[in-house]
Design brief:
Radius of gyration: 18 Å
Structural class: mainly alpha
Largest sheet: none
Strand content: under 5%
Shape: elongated
Distance between the termini: 46 Å
Number of helices: 10
Length: about 180
């Protein structure tokens, strides 16, 4: 199957429910997003963009097992979509009995070379490594994220609690370059 963006768009009125669900997700209201997604006709519930919206809603609601299952299916169908791999790692980190941080890191390590322009993959790996206490690996991944994403990533890293063990290093980097 080709990229998600090349799929047939949803017809009206379903696209309006989809758009409304996206709006509710932007407001972090999973319950309203679920209600809008449920209004999409049954025959369109299997459309990949609808399934991706359900995935986003399950993540917003903290339903990690369902999110992980949906992300796995979407990764299988759309292996060239980095966002689905990121969602799979994110849900795997949090789903009970899914392997936690180690399993999440392994997912992203397995696809990082496939997406060399995606700074967020090594960034998330750095987060996972920090949380596992593997700071040397975290520094290497964060260095790759900075290389790909540029200086703005340093600011984002300084706001990410997962990367707190690396904040002194990042602060020194800022003084040296600033």
């Amino acid at each position: 199957m080709g990229p998600v963006q090349e799929l047939e768009p949803l017809p009206a009125p379903d696209v309006h429910h989809f758009d409304a669900a996206q709006g509710w997700l932007g407001l972090r209201n999973a319950a309203e997003a679920f209600a809008e997604l449920a209004r999409i006709r049954p025959e369109l519930q299997s459309h990949p963009v609808v399934r991706a919206a359900w995935l986003d809603a399950w993540i917003a609601n903290g339903d990690w097992a369902r999110a992980r299952e949906a992300a796995q299916a979407l990764c299988g169908e759309f292996p060239d979509e980095p966002g689905f791999w990121l969602h799979l790692a994110y849900a795997t980190r949090r789903a009970a009995a899914a392997g936690g941080l180690e399993a999440a890191e392994l997912i992203l390590r397995g696809v990082e070379a496939q997406f060399p322009k995606q700074w967020v993959i090594p960034f998330n790996r750095a987060c996972y490594y920090c949380q596992m206490g593997q700071l040397a690996d975290a520094k290497g991944c964060l260095a790759r994220a900075l290389e790909v994403g540029g200086a703005r990533i340093r600011r984002q890293a300084l706001e990410d609690e997962d990367l707190k063990p690396l904040w002194p290093m990042l602060t020194r980097m800022g003084r040296e370059t600033g």
